[in-house]
Amino acid sequence: MIYDTLIIGGGLVGAAAAVALKQQQRKVALLEIRPPETDETRLLQGWDARIYAISPANRQLLQSLNAWPDESRIQAVTRMDVRGDQGGRIEFSAAEIRAERLTSIAENRWLLAALWRQIRALDIPVINQAAAGIESDIETATLTLADGSSLCSRLIIGADGANSWLRSQAGIAVREDAYGHHGVVANFHCERDHQGVAYQWFKNGEVLAYLPLPDRKISIVWSTAEPAKLTELPPDELAAAVTAQGEGVLGKLSPLSPAFAFNLILRRPETTVGQRILLMGDAAHTIHPLAGQGVNLGFGDVEAFADISRKAADIGAHQILQRYHRSRLEPVRTMQLGCNSLFKLFGEEHLPGLPWLRNSGLNLVNNLNGLKNRLVRQAMGL
Ligand SMILES: Cc1cc2nc3c(=O)[nH]c(=O)nc-3n(C[C@H](O)[C@H](O)[C@H](O)COP(=O)(O)OP(=O)(O)OC[C@H]3O[C@@H](n4cnc5c(N)ncnc54)[C@H](O)[C@@H]3O)c2cc1C
């Protein structure tokens, strides 16, 4: 049998691609070495510290895939409050743009479970093995598995994460620029109700975000050059440090999960397509989390490819892959450039006048309602 698409990697992006393409009646199979937990009773014990802000456009995408999870574990954000290091401040509110919410905060494993329930409901075959080799010609690609068997497909999608196996097998070079920062993530209970407000502070070259969760909880992402100074603290001291950096806006924080750190690297592969292969999600791009757009870009890849290939007789044809590649260039580069510029603007401590300029800039945009609302609608994918 020849598949239409084999997808390597069943993280959020690969799982969403599998469901989207299966909905279009494609013959799809998914390779995943670590299928996620889908049992609700176990998922309800504790909170995942890997949290995403899902844009309204991607919420609609997941709803169209019947994979938007139960909202009991999801927090709608109705206002964002971003503060600079010298009195600069910009606020966005859903009411100002007549929207119900700006974004939705959701746990990685809660979203993954909803997608994997659809994978099972649609009977998408899941192959619980690592790929060992790949060969392609002008018509098909063949994947050899660890047990020596092989699978043939019109297209192989690599949604296998930042260190993509498929990308390296295909010989696609990738430019990697470390930000010199790690993202430290952890969850806390807060003394005061957050009222659905997300906060962000740009301070001393570091970026701290408070992402609201249901039941008076928050998740944080703290971008810092010295992660060990946070991850090695006892839980109560970490909570005190996060409370202080966040100016005590939510009162005293109490620890809910251990902190862990991940290295922040900007990755730009030279291409996202090759002969009968295509990359999506972190395999195709990684970005600083300060705008919460990493996984949103990945869902954007899924939506773009599903649209472009919808009516194609041959889903892996050269022109289809090239159209996908071109369609993702601008949104991905714009987001990477925007996040980099913001990161550098607030990371520079020693240039005279810059702190004044960046904080005045925030205040200026805050007072230009037309521009501000356009920016926020763009980030929401509207
Ligand atoms: C520790 C950590 C914390 C993060 N926290 C945040 C955050 O707070 N906010 C945010 O916006 N972003 C965060 N990110 C980034 C975010 O997780 C990614 O942008 C998003 O998950 C990308 O999804 P993906 O499906 O492309 O890749 P992944 O989620 O990496 O999924 C790849 C999948 O491929 C599978 N796989 C890999 N190789 C193979 C193979 N050879 N064969 C079969 N299967 C394979 C893996 O098991 C995995 O399930 C974090 C990333 C990490 C690593």
The outline comes out as: globular
In the predicted model, the low-confidence regions spanning at least 5 consecutive residues are none
Q: CATH class of the domain at 2-51 and 108-177 and 266-345, anyone?
A: Alpha Beta
The tally of strands reads 19
Distance separating the two termini: 41 Å
Q: What's the pLDDT, averaged over the residues?
A: 91
Query: Which range best describes the helical content: under 10%, 10-25%, 25-40%, 40-55%, 55-70% or over 70%?
Result: 25-40%
Ligands and ions found: flavin-adenine dinucleotide
Query: How many helix segments?
Result: 11
CATH homologous superfamily identity of the domain at 2-51 and 108-177 and 266-345: FAD/NAD(P)-binding domain
Q: What's the Cα radius of gyration?
A: 21 Å
Order of helices and strands: EHEHEHEEEEHEEEEHEEEEHHEEEEHHHH
- What structural category do the secondary elements indicate? alpha+beta
User: Can you tell me the CATH topology of the domain at 2-51 and 108-177 and 266-345?
Assistant: FAD/NAD(P)-binding domain
Strand percentage, roughly?
A: 25-35%
> What is the makeup of the main sheet?
8 strands, mixed
CATH architecture assignment of the domain at 2-51 and 108-177 and 266-345: 3-Layer(bba) Sandwich
Detail the topology: elements first, then pairings.
Blueprint: E1 2-8, H1 12-23, E2 28-31, H2 40-43, E3 51-54, H3 56-64, E4 75-77, E5 79-83, E6 89-93, E7 103-107, H4 108-121, E8 126-127, E9 131-136, E10 141-145, E11 150-158, H5 165-169, E12 174-190, E13 197-203, E14 206-213, E15 217-224, H6 228-231, H7 235-245, E16 253-255, E17 260-269, E18 273-274, E19 277-279, H8 294-309, H9 318-347, H10 354-367, H11 369-379
Parallel strand pairs: 1-2, 1-11, 2-8, 5-13, 11-19
Antiparallel strand pairs: 3-7, 4-7, 5-6, 9-10, 10-11, 12-15, 12-16, 12-17, 13-14, 14-15, 18-19
